[in-house]
Amino acid sequence: MAGEVIRFAGFLKDRGFRVFQSSVKDAIRGLEIIGLFKRGDFLSSLRSNLCTNELEWSQFPNLFDEFWDMKALEREEPPQESTSEDREVEEVRADGEFLHDIDQQGGAEAGDIHEKEWLEGVTYSCLSRVEKKDLADFERGDIHVAQLALKRMMEPFKITVSRRSKRSQRAASMDFPRIIRRSLKTGGTPMELFYREKKRRLKRLVILADVSGSMDRYARFVMPFLLGLRGVGSRAEAYVFSTSLSSISFMIRHLSFEKALVRIASEVPDWSGGTRIGYSLHQFNQGPGQRLLSRRTVVLILSDGWDLGGKELLRREMETLSRKAYCVVWLNPLAGDPDYEPVCQGMRVVLPYVDHFLPVANLQGLKRVGRLLSRVMTH
Amino acid sequence: MDLHFESIDRVVEELAEAQYIADRALATVLFLSHRLGKPIFLEGEPGVGKTEVAIVMSRLFYTELIRLQCYEGLDASTSLYEWNYPKQLLHIRLEEQGQKEKEEIEELIYSLKFLIKRPLLEAILRSEDKAPVLLIDEIDRSDEEFEAFLLEVLSDFQITIPEIGTIKAKTRPMVVVTSNRTRDVHDALKRRCLYHWIEYPSFEKEYSIIMTRLAGIESRFAEQVTNFMQKIRTVDLLKKPGISETLDWAQALMVMHRQFLDEEVTMETLGCILKYQEDIEKFKKEIWADQDQRATYLPR
Q1: A154 — contact with chain B (CB < 8 Å)?
Q2: Residues spanned by the domain of A193
Q3: Is the pTM for the entire model greater than 0.90?
Q4: What CA–CA distance (Å, rounded) separates A359 from A343?
Q5: Arithmetic mean of pLDDT, B136-151
Q6: Are residues A103 and A38 in the same domain?
Q7: Contact check, Cβ <8 Å, A41/B43
Q8: Which of A78, A139, A216, B190 has a Cα-to-Cα distance from B24 of 20 to 30 A?
């Protein structure tokens, strides 16, 4: 049974689950404790050990059925005259005894060997294939795997804490110089306490995402990633544009990102319309940009640069943007293509004003973006 | 302690006795957590009874509930321990008049008496005789540094205070961690926990929760409320009402002596269920304005 569970864990891992060795061990131990009598208990025990988030939680039952039913079929080549449920229980019981036997003759060793095999054996997985795939070519089956992979990439940003400290209202480390200075008032008895805390230094992130027709397929994938960047704190702002600009910051701040995504798609007026980058940037610079842009702002633009608007306007707005912001990152799904040259005029105009130009054609590209951001976002 | 929780069936019974209606999956997780000594990581929409799990656990085991409410900026000094500096300083001044040696004073002011015990240290100290239930509520509100620190504590329940030494828990406290998913919690923490996602209750479950939690409620009225709540959760709202809203609402109506749902009373008390102005507007406009839709929400 231990071997089967390990194989099942490998099966989940291939489908984008984050499976940890310790969780697999605990899953096996858990099964020993609850015994293998009910399929439902068996499922919940594995589920609680092997899932780590809601997405995995909701996909688990289907994958569970897929794997263990397949197993049952394999096992029972010679068909027997009993109902499938009975069979399941019998089979599971038989395995339970098997496990028991192993236990008596140093089962720990046997388990370890299995585990090792599993860890070393996995070199090829669905996940590594999906990672390199162009986002536009995604099939339905890949989407689940990709969603999980995306989630993994949205690991919280590392917030670097500066060495300098500032006065603090909340309890942190004691500000003794100030306490003692103030204590002179009360004859050397310190009655008031003061604190100092380390300054946090994180730049503000502004996201401008193109959701026009040509970007539609990419935007749907990149948006969850960008929304996941909420980890950068309450200072992140997000806007989407096609022919005009609209803010989605409110939605991403108040809703879980699955919900936000649905709402954004339904409420943004011209999702999948045409593009007017220059005009949208103009709107941004004139409106929210006034407030948001400073030398502590990182601007991230997601667009393929197919522009219907005027070139001169685009150039002027890009210039303003790059002058005001700390750095401008442009993510272009087409840049992943080795044959790609920024032929479309829009792109050629903006390149001089872009600090980092990155492809985001696949999940690997997104990973690189994450790394870049954690570098430029901190001082 | 092992008298309880000897099998999953027993857990289900115990929970029901303690007025917590749980499905078998949750009971399995509680059982495993107890046996494996692993913390439980609970996620779910607000108001589905995550915190309640810990409260019920403490009631079942006749033990204390130690709660650590997380918030941004929570750190070691507010969650673990802190020296009581003012008390120390005052004490030094008092002792200055006496004849005590410097070393003696120092030993005194760095004893347990001068330590402000915060929830995590409390959980470790209390586990001397009986393991308490430690509830770490809304971990997603704290920051990453705190998570990393929590890992350290959760892995072996041992704390080193430089001036005193290492304090280790005799028995492992039962730990329940809850999260509302406003951000992702790091893997390293999740890996050490059993995961469970609490969903909105089904009709039967919600009905029996109302019946067990609200004494003196009429079964017909409970049915009406359950029906309404189940319906309203199918609407796309900013914040769907959880089971806690259901209980609040039913209780509010009982206080008003209105054990029957009609249009008027629903409109008056809509604020018990929907907590955003946008949601209330949307509900009024899209559902309440429509005669047929409205009829499905109310008893005939």
Answers
A1: yes
A2: 161-200
A3: no
A4: 15
A5: 83
A6: yes
A7: no
A8: B190
